[in-house]
Inverse folding.
């Protein structure tokens, strides 16, 4: 999903925005590369049988070319069957290899600096920046270095339209700053609901309350003790991932290795903090390794989240922050104390919407969920090449359809207009980002999870979005949707 970032002037009223359509155009005549290969195999078999043996050989080879045609054109859940084959094959491979189950080896010591996480996240390493005390997560395989920052902000829906428009424009400038850097691999915005431990209310009462022994004071204190832990709160974090391959020259200048990468990332951190403050957002500092460990533990074990927050110093080690057990199925994930399911925002609003269009999803109550918006900035030269390639493909496909007499439909025309709009915005100096929206829903039991997923899907419909349950890849999707590590699916 691509979207353009605009630096719009402050106005007295909200201005609606529009997202680019998800590109569904293939390599040739709407067919993807896998569809073309499958169709070529079936067509070659059919033509060879026709010239070699005629009718009988056509009958003998019928299973091949009929299967190829079925794989190419018959859809399942909006995808051709041939596009499901890689997912199904990878699922079978992991199932036969015993990779669907994870059990932590409690008595086996772990190397210093490693994270106790399942799957491909076992290769992640932690590094504490000596200057900022920030916890940085290093992925040597993907050559990235990630840091996390917690952000506080006032309730957007309670602001007047003029203030909302000003804040939207300021956030657009933040995204433009990320795009212009050229060294940022991913920017992740993670908004999650957490069970409130009641510490905030208790601290406020301890500071501002009047404990005079009266009936009102005793009743109010009892109400805080009982109702505080029963509520929920929202927490927002920004994760910044440095592309160490793109920043190789700056890293060598900074001393090389992980220390040089941390020095380069500190520059990006300072730039992002300044941009956030100019957008009236309040970054509360970069998270330490202990705070990141609490986030990871709370995601895998939601039942312990309130306890960790209440005591403050528990669960502050990344070496023990991972899950004890993980069981992955085709459409769900089971961790220590919860069942999880991940939804992909497969279609953003096609019509003009106002910036608060996600309110039905983000303000849903009684559901424990994490909404992750993964923004991949594109460099100006790479974005220009991609736009030129898309224009050539659109024009060539249009010429091919004209030759065979196929009519141009409205969706293809709308996609071409989106490409032209992106080219105009890039020429005007704006940034190009690719958005991926993921929603991780958690519940104590499978039945409650099904009900919560249905409620989130209905809320997404109210937000003019289309969601699809990710199957065959729930473990990877959960790490991308619920953990602030800038992971991708």
């Amino acid at each position: 999903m691509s979207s353009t970032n605009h630096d719009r002037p402050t106005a007295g009223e909200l201005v609606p925005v529009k997202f680019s359509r998800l590109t569904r155009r293939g390599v040739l005549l709407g067919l993807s590369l896998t569809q073309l290969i499958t169709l070529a195999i079936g067509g070659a078999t059919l033509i060879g049988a026709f010239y070699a043996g005629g009718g009988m050989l056509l009958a003998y080879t019928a299973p091949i070319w009929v299967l190829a045609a079925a794989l190419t054109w018959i859809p399942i859940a909006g995808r051709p069957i041939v596009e499901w084959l890689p997912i199904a094959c990878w699922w079978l491979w992991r199932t036969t290899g015993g990779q669907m189950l994870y059990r932590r080896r409690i008595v086996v010591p772990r190397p210093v600096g490693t994270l106790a996480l399942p799957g491909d996240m076992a290769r992640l390493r932690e590094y504490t920046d000596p200057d900022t005390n920030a916890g940085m997560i290093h992925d040597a395989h993907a050559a990235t270095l990630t840091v996390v920052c917690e952000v506080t902000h006032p309730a957007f829906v309670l602001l007047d339209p003029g203030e909302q428009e000003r804040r939207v424009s300021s956030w657009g400038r933040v995204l433009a700053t990320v795009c212009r850097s050229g060294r940022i691999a991913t920017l992740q915005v993670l908004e999650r609901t957490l069970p409130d431990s009641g510490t905030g209310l208790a601290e406020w009462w301890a500071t501002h309350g009047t404990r005079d022994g009266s009936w009102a004071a005793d009743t109010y204190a009892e109400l805080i003790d009982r109702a505080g832990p029963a509520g929920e709160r929202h927490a927002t974090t920004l994760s910044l991932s440095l592309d160490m391959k793109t920043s190789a020259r700056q890293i060598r200048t900074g001393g090389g290795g992980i220390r040089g990468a941390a020095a380069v990332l500190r520059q990006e951190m300072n730039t992002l903090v300044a941009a956030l403050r100019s957008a009236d957002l309040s970054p509360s500092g970069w998270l330490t390794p202990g705070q990141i460990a609490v986030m990871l533990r709370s995601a895998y074990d939601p039942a312990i989240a309130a306890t960790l927050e209440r005591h403050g110093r528990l669960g502050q080690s990344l070496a023990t922050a991972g899950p004890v057990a993980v069981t992955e199925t085709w459409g769900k994930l089971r961790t220590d104390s919860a069942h999880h399911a991940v939804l992909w925002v497969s279609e953003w609003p096609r019509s003009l919407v106002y910036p608060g269009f996600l309110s039905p999803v983000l303000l849903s109550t009684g559901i424990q969920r994490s909404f992750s918006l993964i923004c991949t900035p594109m460099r100006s030269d790479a974005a220009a090449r991609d736009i030129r390639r898309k224009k050539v493909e659109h024009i060539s496909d249009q010429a091919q359809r004209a030759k065979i007499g196929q009519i141009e439909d409205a969706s293809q025309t709308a996609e071409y207009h989106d490409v032209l709009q992106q080219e105009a915005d890039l020429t005007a100096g704006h940034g190009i980002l690719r958005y991926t929206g993921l929603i991780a829903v958690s519940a104590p039991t499978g039945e409650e999870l099904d009900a919560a997923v249905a409620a989130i899907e209905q809320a997404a419909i109210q937000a003019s979005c289309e969601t699809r349950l990710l199957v065959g890849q729930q473990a990877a999707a959960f790490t991308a949707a619920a953990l602030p590590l800038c992971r991708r699916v």
User: Anything to note?
Assistant: Confidence is low (pLDDT under 50) at residues 4-11. The chain is about 45% helix and 20% strand.
